[in-house]
Amino acid sequence: MAPTTRQAKRESNSSAKNVESPRPSSSAATAAPVMEPSTRKKMTKNEKQEVRARARRWAENRHAADALAGSSEENEKAAENEEVAENKESVVDTPLPSLESHSSLVRMTEKQKTINLYYFFAVLPVALLIIGSQFLRAMISPPPSDYGSGSMFDSIAPRYDFINRALALNLDMSWRRRLVEEVVGTEGEIFSATHDTVKILDLATGTADVAILLGQAAARYNKNDPPLRTSSTTTDSATVLGLDPSQNMLDIGTTKVQNADLTNIVRLQLGDALKLDSLVDDTFNAVTMSFGIRNVPEKEIALCEIHRVLKKGPHFPHLRAHPKTVESKLAIMEFSEPTGPGIMAMLARIFIRHCVPAIGAILSGHPKEYMHLQKSIADFPPPTEFVRLMESLKCPIKKVGGDEELEIDTFGSFRVKEVINMLFGSVQIYIATPILKKYVTE
Ligand SMILES: C[S@@+](CC[C@H](N)C(=O)[O-])C[C@H]1O[C@@H](n2cnc3c(N)ncnc32)[C@H](O)[C@@H]1O
């Protein structure tokens, strides 16, 4: 009992020592209250009770503060734990590459490797051709500027068609078909527009691809005035006349015309676009020239010869009187180096500059000729310039009646009606009609 009483006394003393005014903060609540010396006097029973009550409140406060501190620590810990858990979750959410997906990654790399290999093998031949064409340029003396005449084509004639198809991936025939369609019309309108025999001249006819297409159109549409089935070899009786200065090209063309059973419609003969002496003025309803004009050095002279032999309305009043008369036409198809900014134009440029001479040289065994081909394309004026050249011509015009006297106030020119671009601007078809102009006198 005694120790208990002493202990109670000690406790009450220590409790009394701990009495203090309530601290506002929880941290303050943890500090032990200090009893002022002035309070050390004998306490009454009431005072003792009050001190005990205050000590109890302090103990409660402290407990509460500890609990609060504990809970905030717990909260922090909990927050930390949550964060860790979240991180864990996010780690778990991001699936680690399974064995299967890993192998698909490996497969993708393999696929990429294959694609790279394809690229490599696609680019390799082009690179080789570029190197080859540069090598040719370095090794072979450049062709003279007048190269491209008939004799040059004589040497490449046997393989000309094959190389054409190979270089143009067989597209060249579709371009020629388009040219012919532009001339004869989709329904062969050129043949139904007049009662006269329709006559078409194909210059630089070569191996007669265009002449044959024209002949086939005539055979199909020329019902009103079918060509006579005679063995005549005169140019007058032919609907389609093909001229070329290369006999070897013409020989191959003649065989093709025979094979196509068009000998009664298509006639081929030697001839130079610069000198169409054998042909009379105002004879042809249409003139075609595919990939030929760039081989002609004096283009203006050839164009004026074409102008001369084309039918011109004012000289043929009966043509104008016919309600369905169509104007005569010149259709020229030619290459030009595409100048456009697009990737396809750039590829076409590389192809024409490097691939054409290199492939042509390999396939024909005549590198100089195919270097000339590329050079003549590079030298050919761009479409706008060629149009200007055609429209600014001043061709001499003979007086009506066919004598040699020239009109002094009239000259001939062309009006370009359409320029059809093909193959990313590397092939053009120029459609023009002959016109007569008067000099303006001041
Ligand atoms: C590239 S080939 C075109 C042949 C044919 N027109 C074609 O579409 O395949 C060029 C032709 O122009 C001929 N040529 C060269 N100089 C010529 C000229 N002054 N007049 C007419 N044709 C000419 C060549 O003999 C050759 O047959």
UniProtKB/TrEMBL annotation:
InterPro entries per UniProt: SAM-dependent_MTases_sf (IPR029063), UbiE/COQ5_MeTrFase (IPR004033)
GO terms assigned for molecular function: methyltransferase activity
Transmembrane segments: 117-136
Taxonomic source organism: Stephanodiscus triporus
Taxonomic lineage: Eukaryota, Sar, Stramenopiles, Ochrophyta, Bacillariophyta
Chain segments carrying region Disordered: 1-97
Protein name per Swiss-Prot or TrEMBL: Methyltransferase type 11 domain-containing protein
Pfam families: Ubie_methyltran (PF01209)
GO biological process entries: methylation
UniProt keyword Protein transport present: no
Basic and acidic residues composition-biased segments: 44-65, 74-91
Keywords, comma-separated and alphabetical: Membrane, Methyltransferase, S-adenosyl-L-methionine, Transferase, Transmembrane, Transmembrane helix
Bias (Low complexity): 21-33
